């Protein structure tokens, strides 16, 4: 069954991997890409999304979204992804690619409301756009199948001891989304930390096809935590989960966002014992089959 999805993103090297698989996989129908401020500013994330769409000769429209968080001051992760957000690969230049004037929040609303089938939102950046969507147009909830989020952690963080980057960037937005009473799937730091890709594996994908070569070069500039141990492709697991959720351990939980703690702002407080769960937490792979799943998905790319 083909899954209609909207990707909300802040590319980002691991975002690039997720977008590449989604644009190419026969089980995915990407309706649009929405950009947000996050890994780098929204002008750069939008440009990076356009680079990827052009690379794949795709007709998927790209819309620019929020330029800053709801309340917090903007932060970025240029030290992880490079100054452009996708350093390491020379994409072909492109001109005259039309960026619609419609803000991505309006575009997402229109896409959801006109769809004959419930839409899955894949949110792999800060949740600013999605929070604004749900707060401004609550009527979209009835036609959202689920929101699959890369963000949060049931353990330690990666930008502070307790906070993961995407949630930390806009915790108020995350608070709105997690408490919107619609199906949410949280794919946090736990999964990628337990499902790393070795450097030898990354060398292998270089030979698979043009996309593997592109991702290989991007990943040489990816400075995520403990990169010497292996590559943590956080965002790509949103797409792998949608392709085959059965190869992951998934638990019901209640997740709340710390908004005010001096040392804990942006932390995801995960209660696996709650009698009132508000999301599913994808915690770990069942086996090493995630690598085979990645290679299979990559094989559909150019």
Sequence of secondary-structure elements: EHEHEHHEHEHHEHHHHEEEH
> What is the β-strand count?
9
Radius of gyration: 17 Å
The outline comes out as: globular
Helix/strand-derived category reads alpha/beta
Query: What percent of the residues sit in helical stretches (DSSP H or I)?
Result: 25-40%
Taking the sheet with the most strands, its summary is: 9 strands, mixed
Low-confidence segments, ≥5 residues, pLDDT <50?
Answer: none
Percent of residues in β-strands? 15-25%
Distance between the termini: 22 Å
Regarding quaternary structure, what we see is single chain
Order of strands across the biggest sheet? 3-2-1-4-5-6-9-7-8
Count of alpha/pi helices: 12
Average pLDDT, to the nearest integer?
Answer: 95
Summarize the structure.
It holds the Pfam family IU_nuc_hydro. The protein is built from twelve helices and nine strands.
Describe it for me?
The protein has 302 residues and is of the alpha/beta class. It is built from twelve helices and nine strands. It has a nine-stranded mixed β-sheet with strand order 3-2-1-4-5-6-9-7-8, sandwiched between helices. Helix 1 (13-24) links the parallel strand 1 and strand 2 (28-35). Helix 1 runs antiparallel to helix 10, helix 1 runs parallel beside helix 11 (236-243) and helix 5 (128-136) packs across helix 7. The model has no long low-confidence stretch (mean pLDDT 95). This is Ribonucleoside hydrolase RihC.
């Amino acid at each position: 069954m083909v899954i209609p999805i909207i990707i909300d993103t802040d590319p980002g090297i691991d975002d690039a991997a997720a977008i590449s698989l989604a644009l190419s996989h026969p089980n995915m129908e990407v309706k649009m890409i929405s950009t947000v401020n996050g890994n780098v500013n929204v002008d750069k994330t939008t440009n990076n999304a356009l680079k990827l769409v052009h690379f794949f000769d795709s007709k998927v429209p790209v819309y620019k979204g929020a330029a800053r968080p709801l309340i917090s001051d903007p932060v970025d992760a240029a030290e992880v992804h490079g100054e452009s957000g996708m350093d390491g690969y020379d994409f072909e230049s492109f001109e005259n690619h039309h960026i619609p004037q419609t803000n991505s929040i309006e575009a997402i609303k229109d896409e959801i409301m006109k769809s004959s089938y419930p839409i899955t939102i894949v949110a792999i950046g800060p949740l600013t756009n999605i929070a604004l969507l749900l707060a401004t147009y609550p009527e979209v909830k009835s036609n959202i199948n689920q929101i699959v989020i890369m963000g949060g952690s049931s353990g330690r963080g990666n930008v502070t001891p307790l906070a993961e980057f995407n949630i930390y960037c806009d915790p108020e937005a995350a608070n709105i989304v997690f408490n919107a009473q619609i199906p949410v799937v949280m794919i946090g730091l736990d999964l990628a930390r337990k499902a790393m890709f070795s450097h030898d594996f990354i060398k292998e994908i270089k030979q698979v096809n043009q996309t593997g070569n592109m991702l290989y070069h991007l990943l040489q500039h990816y400075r995520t935590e403990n990169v010497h141990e292996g590559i943590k492709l956080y965002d790509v697991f949103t797409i792998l989960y949608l392709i085959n959720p059965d190869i992951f351990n998934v638990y019901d939980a209640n997740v709340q966002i710390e908004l005010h703690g001096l040392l804990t702002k942006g932390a995801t407080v995960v209660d696996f014992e709650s009698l009132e769960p508000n999301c599913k937490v994808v915690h770990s792979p069942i086996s090493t089959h995630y690598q085979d799943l990645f290679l299979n998905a990559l094989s559909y790319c150019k």
